Amino acid sequence: MRGAARPGPRGRGRLPGTRGLRAPPPPLLLLLALLPLLPAPGAAAAPAPRPPALSPAAAGPSVSLYLSEDEVRRLIGLDAELYYVRNDLISHYALSFNLLVPSETNFLHFTWHAKSKVEYKLGFQVDNFVAMDMPQVNISAQGEVPRTLSVFRVELSCTGKVDSEVMILMQLNLTVNSSKNFTVLNFKRRKMCYKKLEEVKTSALDKNTSRTIYDPVHAAPTTSTRVFYISVGVCCAVIFLVAIILAVLHLHSMKRIELDDSISASSSSQGLSQPSTQTTQYLRADTPNNATPITSSSGYPTLRIEKNDLRSVTLLEAKAKVKDIAISRERITLKDVLQEGTFGRIFHGILVDEKDPNKEKQAFVKTVKDQASEIQVTMMLTESCKLRGLHHRNLLPITHVCIEEGEKPMVILPYMNWGNLKLFLRQCKLVEANNPQAISQQDLVHMAIQIACGMSYLARREVIHKDLAARNCVIDDTLQVKITDNALSRDLFPMDYHCLGDNENRPVRWMALESLVNNEFSSASDVRAQRETEREKQTPHCAESPTRGSGLDPRTLRP
């Protein structure tokens, strides 16, 4: 019979009437193959060119060969029958389509029949025998087409040795009556074959024998899926470790701050208060000996300050409580005078490193003049310890003191090159047109946020400042603002403090009502001072009444 498969090199047969495998045509070709078979709904099918028929016989063999509706749905998801030959008419559209066989599909089913005697001969060609075995069928390689509707099966089994796309050609020769009267039908298929990845031991006793389990459904994405899940797992592990490290560091820093605060509070309060049981957890180094802690109705921790309370602390006691941060006078070099009052001065100084004399740091140096009294010196040392032991980016606590005998005490703070915030704002307002340091409204808002952050930290630490104002803040060239203590503020800014008849100078404009009347201070009173500080930044050079905005008449205030 013409068209029989003839073995070629390496066992590959080349069927007559074929020119080898071609690239798969566009998927649209399949739709074109099905269109003649599916008439339009609601209308009669238009007459189409009649496809070529099988070689004629006397009465016509009426051969039909097609894929059933279930088979088409399984292969390509369409609800239709795909005819290759229908009553002797050949559909070259369907035959020319190179159908992709899903990788999990190992069997193809063809339905056929003939009314009269038709002989067939079946052969296969595979372009990669390493990836796929020779296809097998459940019928003989040659014989007669059945006279009743029958189904034959073609098995396409991959070897599992390599990953490759395999091209399959199935050639069917149909012969009617005479050996010279035959028709060749070529069916093209392609299938992806994948390498086997999983091996399972068949027996615990026989360790040398193993069998391979191959899942074509999951074989394709196995490698990429594993890589994806491994990557996700590694990323999650790294994020988890980083979160743990950050949490540990945060807890460690919080414990260190609490330890520093407790040491500073306990050591300072003992020297600044009489040896009694009056000291509470709210009293810090700036708290006088007879300050009484109370609790207001709002729930804020408050302090009641009695008159002349700071004067009860002696100079020796104040020096003893800052002895642990005392340094030698030789390490301090005084340069320019930044601010000067009646008895106090603030210098721009240089601090030499204790271990390396070649390393120097700039610093603020607060000190007093020769005519300063012992009470004024004691107040400077006591008020300088207000923020000692606190750590925040918007706070500026003292770092060292110099209390050598025969020398005036000095308080050292880190340097901020634009100095006092009140003086800086006043300079910017007075010469705003020509000053290169002129600031915008956005800068003022940024300063307000920084002050709020610092005061929020103090509230969380249950520390009451009691004298928040622009005069007690400093600023650098990056517009970073830090809150500092109020040491020497009464002397350097006398216009901001007023005596109400009790020989006690107070910042009336920044004080809350309960602080003025009852000498009670709390976080709420600090909020009142913060609001006035924000208004002060808007008009830092305007001369205002000390009670403006407070709703108070200074004539009615009595100690």
TrEMBL record:
* Location relative to the cell: Membrane
Q: Does the keyword Transferase apply?
A: yes
Pfam families, from UniProt?
PK_Tyr_Ser-Thr (PF07714), WIF (PF02019)
**Annotated stretches, region: Disordered:** 1-20, 265-298, 524-559
User: How does the record classify its membrane topology?
Assistant: Single-pass membrane protein
Comp. bias (Low complexity):
265-281
The record's section on InterPro entries has:
Kinase-like_dom_sf, Prot_kinase_dom, RTK, Ser-Thr/Tyr_kinase_cat_dom, Tyr_kinase_AS, WIF, WIF_sf
Q: Which SMART domains match?
A: WIF
Record SUPFAM superfamilies: Protein kinase-like (PK-like)
Q: Which GO terms describe its cellular component?
A: plasma membrane; receptor complex
Biased composition annotated in UniProt, kind: Basic and acidic residues: 528-539
The answer to whether UniProt assigns keyword Electron transport to this entry is: no
One GO MF term on file is: ATP binding
Biased amino acid composition, Polar residues: 287-298
Alphabetized Gene3D superfamilies for the sequence: Phosphorylase Kinase, domain 1, Transferase(Phosphotransferase) domain 1, Wnt, WIF domain
Show where the WIF domain sits.
Answer: 65-193
Q: What is this protein called?
A: Tyrosine-protein kinase RYK isoform X3
Which organism does this record belong to? Zalophus californianus
Which gene does this sequence derive from? Answer: RYK
